[in-house]
């Protein structure tokens, strides 16, 4: 009986150990896996100055650069320093701190240091998008 319990205990210990070392699968392309493979965080949390991964890999200088999110292209490639030429369709922050991918404009998260990507025009934009959708206008 003791040997059966011992074997069961060894098996369960090995199973738990193996489970801890299996890489986590992230739920969508909006998430990135931390370097240790045990955790996923939203892409917008990469290089934001806060250590969200338990291994702190989301804030490593090799990934983020010295200036962080708005000063480099970062791991997600969503931000570009204004000293570089920005893609034509990207949003230009009013304070010239960064260019922001259009997908991140009006998403209720300040990507520009001055918050200019989340101002009153977002409401107007949503109203116009709603009107277009109502009338099935295609450009």
From TrEMBL:
Keywords: Disulfide bond, Signal. InterPro entries: IDLSRF-like_peptide (IPR053103), LDL_receptor-like_sf (IPR036055), LDLR_class-A_CS (IPR023415), LDrepeatLR_classA_rpt (IPR002172). Residues 1-18 form the signal peptide. PROSITE patterns: LDLRA_1 (PS01209), LDLRA_2 (PS50068). This is Low-density lipoprotein receptor domain class A. SUPFAM superfamilies: LDL receptor-like module (SSF57424).
